[in-house]
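Appendix B. Raw example, untouched.
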Amino acid sequence: MTVTMRLDPAAIQYGTVVRPEVCTDGSLAYVAEIPDLPGCMSHGSTVEEARQNLEDAKREYLAALGERGLPIPTPSIDPIVTTIQWTLIGTTQPRREETTIKAPTATIESLNPYGVAAPA
């Protein structure tokens, strides 16, 4: 018996960047984007709304790639956080400490543990 499964591209997890931005009317909005998908971005009045809107944008972006027969980009496996800088306040002398965090190594196989082939 053979079971064929198709991976829904919208299920692929990509790194996201969310940043605050001041609108022309002076209000604050949050812009969310996926660097691995050029031009895939959205915004919202809260961080959570921006992320939810970005999920919708990602789904549409990947669907458009599929409709055009273009390949679905593989998520980059670079660590999202590489360095954290701490500024200690309230001590007699403020000082900065830097810590480097190493992310676990990931492979396409580890991101796809069931061996499901991506849509052709």
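End of appendix B.
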